[in-house]
Amino acid sequence: MSRVSLAAIAAAVALLGACSDEQQELRSWMDEQRAAITPVVEKITPPKSFEPFRYENEGLADPFAQSRLAFRANGEPKSGGRTPDLARKREVLEAFPLEAIKMVGHMSNNNASFALLQVENMVYQARVGNYAGQNFGKIVRVSEGEVVLKEMVQDAAGDWNERDTALRLQETKK
What we know:
Layout: H1 3-36, H2 66-69, E1 102-108, E2 113-119, E3 122-126, E4 131-132, E5 137-142, E6 146-154, E7 160-168
Antiparallel strand pairs: 1-2, 2-3, 4-5, 5-6, 6-7
């Protein structure tokens, strides 16, 4: 071995020896610091007590009663005989849901008033007595600002109920 390599080995051993003392000093300092520091534990507030909501249904109709869901034995609807005319010929606007139909205009001549209803980029004329929407909606009034329909919807018990719906004039952006 040459003198240079022996000198390098000796220097490395001396440096490593010096590092071991430094590491030992660092470890002892860390142990002292750990012993001196006491952890601070904050008091946790107890959780709020849970009080469940009690549903009081005394005197109210039971929505799940079999009498509400069953049909009458004689087949007579409970709605007093109001049912849509299923035998009549369906009109064009009945093929679309009411949400897809927009009122875009109004026209009137001597005695008749027409609403302009738009569906899928097609505009249709509708007047009182025409049908629109998939719930047997019959147009009962046409004015400059809206079209009023009476829809017939069937509930879970099979009864037909009337509800009023309006299509309001929609301004188009150009």
